Amino acid sequence: MAKSVPITLPNGRSWSKKGNAVDHFKSMLARYADGDRVRDASDNADLEALLAVYDSVVPTGQPTKTGSGVAHFERRMDRDHPGHTSCFFVVRTDGSSIDFSTRRALDVAGAQPR
Length: 114
Known about the structure:
Layout: E1 7-8, E2 14-15, H1 18-30, H2 41-55, E3 70-78, E4 85-92, E5 97-100, H3 102-111
Antiparallel strand pairs: 1-2, 3-4, 4-5
Helix pairs in contact: 1-3, 2-3
């Protein structure tokens, strides 16, 4: 039987199982339509914390997802990947933006030492 992987984000949000965290972020994505800016403060806090975990494993000198800093998050259609799915994009303070995978970030969070 697979071991449950607890997830804890730097903002204090936690789940006893990674699957519950995945469901949380899937549900969050579903609350927004393509082109919508994430306006809920709790959603923003969770996305920022998740992105901080994601960026924590980027090798020194390599570009991070947060780049110059986070201005806000949006849901957009990701046309660069097969399947053309919607996902969250981080819009940086310099106006640039990039998509990120909540699942990959949760993989990183689940691998963090406890």
